[in-house]
Amino acid sequence: MLELDASQIQMGRVAANKDEALAMLGDALASAGLATAAYLEGLRAREAQGSTFLGQGIAIPHGTPQTRDQVLRTGVCLIQFPAGVDWGNGQQVYLAIAIAAQSDEHLHLLQLLTRALGEGDLSQALREAREPAQILELLQGAPQALALDGQLVALGQPAEDFDELLWQGARLLRQAGCASSGFALGLARGEPLPLGDGLWWLHSEASVERPGLAFVTPAQPLSFRGEALRGLFCLASQGEAHRQALERLCDVLIGGRAAAFSEASNSRQVIEALGGEVPPDWPSLALPLLNAHGLHARPAKVLSELAQGFAGEIRVRLQGDAGAGVSAKSLSRLLALGARRGQMLEFSAEPGIADAALPALRAALAAGLGETVEPLHEEASAPAVPVQAAPVAPLAGSSLQAVAASPGIAIGPALVRTPPVFTFAERGQGGDHERSRLDEALRSVAAQLQRLVDGAGVASIREIFSAHLAMLADPALREDVEARLATGASAEAAWQLEVEAAARRQEALHDPLLAERAADLRDIGNRVLAHLCGVELPREPSEPYILVMSEVGPSDVAALDRQRVAGIVTARGGATAHSAIIARALGIPALVGAGDGMLALAQGTPLLLDGDSGLLRVAPAAAERDQALREREQAQRRREQAHAERLQAAQTRDGLRVEVAANIGASGETADAVELGADAVGLLRTELVFMEHAQAPDQAAQEREYRRVLDALDGRPLVVRTLDVGGDKPLPYWPMPAEENPFLGVRGIRLSLQRPEILETQLRALLASADGRPLRIMFPMVGAVEEWRAARDMVQRLRAEIEVADLQLGIMIEVPSAALLAPVLAREVDFFSIGTNDLTQYCLAIDRGHPTLSAQADGLHPAVLRLIEMTATAAHAEGKWVGVCGELASDRLAVPLLVGLGVDELSVTPRSIALVKARVRELDSQQARALAARALTLDSAGAVRALVAEMH
After folding, report:
1. Are 164 and 486 in contact (CB under 8 A)?
2. Which residue numbers in the chain have pLDDT < 50?
3. Which of the following is catalytic: 106, 468, 578, 850?
4. What is the DSSP letter of 619?
5. How far apart, in whole angstroms, are the C-alpha atoms of residue 482 and residue 498?
6. pTM
7. Catalytic-residue membership of 885
8. Is 62 a residue of the active site?
9. How far is residue 750's CA from residue 784's CA, in Å, rounded to a whole number?
10. Among the options 62, 106, 203, 468, which is catalytic?
11. Crossing angle (nearest 10°) for helices 132-139 and 106-116
């Protein structure tokens, strides 16, 4: 979403004409890294199609759809021209806002701008402004008008007391976008004001997004503080926007017409009594908007000019909005709608012109309003609902390829678990009673989760259940549940409906990683429901078994007894699900995404699970089972021997030393990693220290964390990855606009360079914590040389202030462009660390969290191996070292190839260190190089794995 700030504004510029102004704007966009220099031709082409003059001295130049490929990232540049620029037709521009947007992202900005173009003329003020802050203040416009329409009126609501009516009003304001989480609590803290005749007033300024007034009445008269309660006005207060409505309300009450509210039979009567706008009773027509990029400037201009050709009034609103709509003759008002493709526009016209105007509007929208459009391809009739066939269990003796989620071999009978069934009444026994029951359940479940947090020995598990605690205390979820309780719902019904609604919203996200968190929400929901319904969730049997479920919640995994559970198989989900993360941390072999047929297995069906290859055998033959048992025994002996030798160096038979380091996420894991044989920390993820704070941690807080790691390493090297967040894993205090594909958006170093003050604080903390100990800093998601240089230069500037004796700077190779640029980058960096997880998904164009494709995202694909080989060769040519810190580094079949490709360091989870060291000791470096050379000639990851399995 585009936003404005002072850094985007150039003041006091002069342009002789419009073309010169466009050239200045194009240069500003290019200098800001928002667009290429060629985007200027798009600005000119757009002006040739029609003027981008918005009104009141403002123009909004932007490119054409054909030049969107010249946009590098979304953004704006503003230039003030105090002397004015002739934009054609005598229109003078004093402020030009150049927009670089890759889709319809600029519609939100147009809404903000057109709100400023209300009453009065801004042109003189824009001309006389001397500071960017003045421009911003003008563009923010007058205070927003009070939201007062039918969607904010609810009559005859089931409520037993004042509090339930309050929650109803707060919910209406939240649904209308007037308030956010926390508003209802602020409203409840206010002092209710009696207005007489059973009407009450309550307001709050807390958590208000825009001013709005809601009115609710109970289904039957209530009493409150000894007086009648026939209706409640709830105000989301912001400035003086409500003054006119309040004055009108007082006039009505003084005139003895309170029944206009307390006895109203529809919302229109209430709105009219308060002086709000109601839709005129004119002929109307609803039409779909077909334009690919919504109602932006060009189609809006065509529409406004069409409307201006009729003598009477034409109004338009988004279908579903309760207001009177806006004038279709006003370009700025049309832009303020922010209408997008596929939305329905509801037109109404004065009766005298409706017969001519409405058909003309239908034809104009169908023709595209001056643009080429495609139909929406909606079927005239509702599509037939496909009949879902019942899942069929795989046959005995068959093999299935699933997604390997946690390594190891497991053998045992299947325990197929189905979701628990909760039976409860839909209606409750009163708001206070149900609220008390829910509170008690939430306290109990919170205590259970806290015990899981406290008992978790691994940081990743603690982090997940800490997030569950936060979800449980989510004020927005609680407000939604409270609103349902206020309607008379039982605690079970209110909780179940709102949790399921939240889970469905997660599943609807484009990002599979975020969508998989729906399982976490349902996991929490089931815990609370089980407590409310008195249902004991299933316990595992005493015999070793393989758990089979549709999706396994994190609570299910964390509660497992490692001595009795042999492995886990899920029908759905991806390798990044929290259950998979916990299974890896606990060392439980697991497969995910095995298909719904697994749910049809008979209880006790023998299963053989290989968590390394992703292969699942159903009712295997005795010979297969015996072979698997032998392999498991061999693997156990390897683990025991490797653990005994974990502190020895990882050196090939012919003397090549490979450093084996640990990937950790918190300082508390360092000592364990060292005890498990780590030569260094090869990846310290710093996100956790940022996630544990309500705001960005200061230098002192970060420095304490980094010192604890260095202290525990006792002179061993520390490789730190700077903050790696983005749209796929945002921070609560660092809001980021939604991105269609956050994995290809603003994340990693791209984001850090947009907030240099946060990056600088982190770098200062790292440098100050070193104290002569070996410190390596690497920057994530570097895709261009310029990004590396910007980050490096910041460190060099700080290093002039903070002396560091042993410092190396490097980058992560996660983007194919960085691997291809390795010969250039190797001349400047001190090292490379290859993040094979991201490198694989970007190279193969397969989301590694995709539930059906992720099995194909194999880092041993020859294309990925070529990028690794290219990086290692470039590094060694310049005398630099290269490491691998992705999951590939701990893959038994990958280690010989990585050593053969020239990788100097393997950084793995602490549990894998001993085995990786042992694997390196089995190798001959010359043979490994020959093996890697052969692998590069093969055509698939499967062929590579077969080759290594045959040779090793």
Report:
1. yes
2. 1, 119, 378-387, 508-515, 576
3. 578
4. S
5. 10
6. 0.52
7. yes
8. yes
9. 10
10. 62
11. 90
